[in-house]
Amino acid sequence: MKIVLLDEIDSTNRFCERMLDEGEDLIVCARRQTEGMGTNGRSFLSDEGGVYLSALTFYDDLPAGDAFRIMAHAALSVCRTAEDFGLSPRIKWPNDVLVGGKKLAGILIRNVIGGGKIRASIVGIGLNVCNDLSALGGIALSLSDAAGKTIPTDEARDRLIGHLKEETDFRDYLSRAAFLGEEILVCEGEKRYSAIARRILPDGRLEIDRAGAVRALSSAEIRIVLSNFNH
Ligand code: BTN
Question: Which residue of 64, 80, 97, 162 is surrounded by the most CB atoms within 10 Å?
Fold first, then answer.
């Protein structure tokens, strides 16, 4: 696997988009991004001290329905990196990695779909290692803050790359899922309601129980706004 290490880039995800025609798997990491991209068109704070990385992977025969596997693998790789530094992260479905209820990383995935298959994926991960997050108002924390000691960015980067190369199992994801059996606040379109998170199905949908009505919904349909956990 080709690894590209850069000091600065607009966005590692954009770098991968520009490399799509090359057809070669690669991981690109930068010390900072000038136009880091977050979910829903938001920008992503990308100052020095974080790991900003994107993995471009091509697939021969991956059904579009397997998109959750890519999300789960990314979240699990972040968890394993945090565990290497003695932390016990939890995953807020589908792929938010939390420590003490705060976000340790942001994950942004773009899949290139053709003929019902995922032809390529760009998995972008921004991992907080020892960067200043004070501008984010307490919703995020870094590996260093959580571990109570300064963790070198390069060490965290190398661990994360190592874990991205590992195989993962759905059970590894499930064992870190944060809120199963608990009451959560769900956002579905314009509606917000509370429900019990029952289980995560192998296709990645979350099964919820809303006052006795059980439904399985994808992360494109619902989002967990809040939950009563503080893992
Ligand atoms: C989120 O909003 O939580 C997702 C943020 C994803 C940020 C990462 S940093 C590396 C990669 N390059 C980007 O421009 N974004 C992703």
Answer: 97
Which residue has a Cα nearest atom 2 of ligand 1? Answer: 38
The pLDDT averaged over each successive group of 10 residues in the chain (231 residues) is 97 98 97 96 96 98 94 97 97 95 96 96 98 91 96 98 95 95 94 96 96 95 71 42
Cβ atoms of 16 and 125 closer than 8 Å = no
Ligand 1 centroid to Cα of residue 123, in Å, is 9
* Residue of the CA atom closest to atom 3 of ligand 1: 106
Q: Atom 7 in ligand 1: which residue has the minimum CA distance?
A: 126
Q: What is the C-alpha separation between 226 and 185, in angstroms, rounded?
A: 5
Question: What is the Å distance from ligand 1's center to 95 Cα?
Answer: 12
Tell me the CA–centroid distance for residue 97 and ligand 1, in Å.
13
Q: Please choose, from the candidates 178, 100, 85, the residue with its C-alpha nearest in 3D space to the C-alpha of residue 139.
A: 100
Give the span between the Cα atoms of 191 and 187, in whole angstroms: 6
